[in-house]
Amino acid sequence: LFTMGLFGVKPWTQSLVYGTALISLLGPKEPRLELTRKVDGEDRPVLPLSISLTVVLAVNVIIQLLACVKLFYPIFAQSDKLGTALAVIASILPSTLQGAGGAIEGYFAESSFKQWQHLGAFIILLAGFLLLGNAFKQMVLVGSTPDVMLPSFLNMLDSL
């Protein structure tokens, strides 16, 4: 819905939302990813998701990162201290940290049950949410409609 809110109600955003919901709720549960991790000498499964759900989640992550650039890049690009590359990185860092916290939780902490790994994943996830809050704060302080050109790859998504 975040993507639809930024890019508008268009056929491709509707397909993304409804496709994600259908595959998440009704999609095939098999075959699953067969990722394992050796913990205490034995192989333990990690991220036991169906392949179809993994593909849908990967597409959603990519589109969400593009949506974050569309929303936050103009705000960060107005800073005299940040160049274009750093403005893009600052735009995607909150979502990247949220995803990294979840990935660390799913891959390391859930397979080993070590509480320090749970804490580390939580701290990374929390850092992502704090940076997201800061990005919204910056948007309020700077203004929501700055006159900064978006990177050209986002103009393509607006035209779809």
Topology, pairings included?
Blueprint: H1 2-7, H2 11-26, E1 35-39, E2 42-46, H3 51-77, H4 84-112, H5 115-142, H6 152-159
Antiparallel strand pairs: 1-2
Helix pairs in contact: 2-3, 3-4, 4-5
Radius of gyration: 18 Å
Overall form = flat
Strand order of the largest sheet: 1-2
Strand count, sense and closure of the main sheet? 2 strands, antiparallel
How far do the termini sit from each other? 17 Å
Count of extended strands:
2
Describe this structure in words.
The chain is mainly alpha-helical and 160 residues long. It contains six helices and two strands, in the order ααββαααα. It has helices at residues 2-7, 11-26, 51-77, 84-112, 115-142, 152-159; strands at 35-39, 42-46. The protein has a two-stranded antiparallel sheet. A hairpin with a 2-residue loop joins β1 (35-39) and β2. α3 (51-77) packs antiparallel against α4. The longest helix has 29 residues, at 84-112.
